[in-house]
Amino acid sequence: MMTQLARAGTGTVHPLDDVPLDVETISATTDAALCHQMSTTTRQQIDDLLPRLVDHLNGLLAGELGADEDDCVRAEFREAYKLLDMQNRPTASTPTFGAFIYMRDVASLTRRFLWLYARRSGLDAPYAPEHSSLFTSWCFPP
After folding, report:
1. What is the pTM of this model?
2. Is residue 7 part of a domain?
3. Long-range contacts: 93-101, Cβ < 8 Å, 24+?
4. CA end-to-end span of the chain
């Protein structure tokens, strides 16, 4: 599925907006990150996986997910922007535990955005977010 997004006020499509979102790959990447255990995960594994997770999250943030009309989605966007801020990302001096927690936070948030994307696109959601009943009732009342 391709996303076509016009930039506000311009009426033109940004070249990066025509990139397909691969729901299966994003789902598999977040699954891999969330299956890692702190006791058996190396810093190298975290450093290898984290750029893909950040890329997936950035790709989902570029889509029209309803932030303009939905407070819940807008809150998710605020959380994502805060998490992706360069000051909040792990550095080479960040302990492995801190990088691990950051990786899991990015993976979890990416899953929530993927769920929103699938729902708004009419796709079967590959999974529900961690707190799906609370999330669903708050963001998508009956």
Report:
1. 0.73
2. no
3. 96/41, 96/42, 96/43, 96/46, 97/38, 99/43, 99/46, 99/47, 99/50, 100/36, 100/38, 100/41, 100/46
4. 27
Q: Is residue 48 part of a domain?
A: yes
Is residue 72 included in any domain, yes or no?
A: yes
Residue with the two structure tokens 């009956």: 142
Q: How deeply is 11 buried, as exposed, middle or buried, from its count of CB atoms within 10 A (0-12, 13-18, 19+)?
A: exposed
Q: Determine, yes or no, domain membership for 93.
A: yes
Question: Which residue range forms the structural domain that includes residue 75?
Answer: 22-139
What does the longest C-alpha to C-alpha distance in the chain come to? 50
Map residue 53 onto helix, strand or coil. Answer: helix
* Alpha helices by DSSP H, 4-95: 23-35, 43-61, 71-84
pLDDT in tens, 35-55: 899 888 899 999 999 999 999
pLDDT at 141: 44
